[in-house]
Amino acid sequence: MSIRFLFGKLAAGQRLAAQIAAAACLATLPAQAQTVAPDDAPPARKALRVCQDPNNMPFSNLKGEGIENKLAELFGTAMGLPVTYFSFPQRLAFVRNTLRYKLPGEDFRCDVIMGMPVGGGGGAQVTKPLYRSAYALVFAKGRGMDQVSSSADFLALDRAFLSKLRIGVYDKSPASDWLFRHQLTDQGVPYPIRNANPDQYPGEIIEKDLTAGKIDVAIVWGPIAGYFAQRIQSPKLVVIPLKSEPGVRLSFEMGIGLRFGEREWKQQIEGLIDSQRAGIDAILKEFGVPVVDDSYDLRRN
After folding, report:
1. CATH number of 134-241
2. CA atoms within 13 A on the CB side of 224
3. What is the pTM assigned to this prediction?
4. pLDDT in tens, 274-286
């Protein structure tokens, strides 16, 4: 799944249990949701058909350069199938307009969403986890925070210094809740998740504003933090994953979204998650994804 959808579906699940908000803005296009009957023998597949956002790096784009594109290619190769894409902006009703989109007399347009929060709802069943990541602090070296290597270090900075920081966060995200919990709301610089501009992408907060010094710190979803910190050579950026705290969930497991009722297809995809683990981990490392263990989860804190 791409980050816009990640924000969106994690937000829904998070606000049920209080966090990530939807990167949704465009009006819902007409689509006909279909009920899928359980299948004991899935049809022969001619391609691995992927639902994707066309402009949502580091997750996906039309050039096939994202994390989810690379994961799809890995799975397609393992299955001996070509990979095809059905693209739609991951905003409001993404699942309904991709995975569940079907006109009378036609087949579904795509069969998998390569990134959805495990247990987050969102109109699809989700496989076992591909990985777990967390929201992360991102800041530039040489700007007064070089001694910071944990959230505790950051919060222990001199209060006068902290009070002058401009901390960029996407509104209605766990980052906003984290600022509120630690009495840093006044330092927050909100960025709208619900952006109608199709050229907007979540990494802009780092690639444009943090590097230019318009903000001093960004708190963003881990894969975004890791990818853009790795991509940007100057200034050198530091990424610090944040552990969940009571009332503020900051780490999430990500799996693959499938239509409900497709039991054997889910089993096949989960078998690939197991058999292709080395390849999955190599892709995550290539993109700088900060993978965390369950000590970052609320249940362990």
Report:
1. 3.40.190.10
2. 25
3. 0.84
4. 999 999 999 999 9
